[in-house]
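Posting here for the record, re: aspartic acid.
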Amino acid sequence: MSWKLMIHGGCGAMRPDSVTPEQEEQARAALHAALDAGETLLGAGGSALDAVEAAARVLEEDPSFNAGRGAVLTADGHAELDAAIMDGTGRRCGAVAGLRTTRAPVSAARAVMEHSPHVLLTYAGADHFAREQGLEQVANEWFKIAVREAQLAKVIAAGGGFDSDIKYGTIGAVAVDSAGHVAAATSTGGLTAKRWGRIGDSPLIGAGTYADDRAAAVSATGLGEVFIRAAAAHELCARVRIGGEPLQAALDGVLAEIVALGGNGGLIAVAPSGEAAWGFTTPGMYRGVAGPDGREVAIYAER
Ligand code: ASP
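Prediction output follows.
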């Protein structure tokens, strides 16, 4: 059985003429670094669960993406972070939403899975739990970067609605290990100028994140409200497990439903067989895939 790791750094209106060479170089380097982190573990016989956490942590730390440091800001100017992780063996999972001080949201999600009787913790309680678990705490300012402050100001000046040029910079990782077990992780700051304690699809098991050894591991990016309505990540697994669809056909079918419901976005998925698929309805998606035969990193439709 051979291992496979697939990652995304969000999708959106990225085109070669709208991303500077420096931004592109930084994003590609971060995608390679995330693949390196997961590949080291998987290549040495490590678990899919450890690999997706390790890859997600690299992407959370890189300000190119809307997760961890560099997350988008709420209407009142805070970073509020959501994440989930799921182990396809036994369908164990953990998630957090609205974190303000925990540096590694994906690791907080894993702590919920492994050290609490719960699946989803939110807001101050989730940070409190993460602190008790010994996870590093930082000031909310640590997550903020100037470009996100400028984006927030632009969205508020335009009336607070969502920008059609939006880049969904959520990050995610899915993997299958050499034992044939799958795992998925997703981490995000959500949407710019979110209000009222809005939570998107990323930390909701079955919407933005799902893993089941009987089907696939899935991570989503895009307009979270529509991915929740479609139960997108679980729907993809159900198409494979119950409907018998090939992985890529199942993924394309879910994206068609997302578009039919008025949304857009992208998905990555791997199956216990080692099969992998990705797709997106936007001009680009930051993404990468690695296996024993090599790797590929891409941003735009073609490269
Ligand atoms: N799906 C995320 C959310 O709605 C946003 C993203 O993909 O960037 O919270």
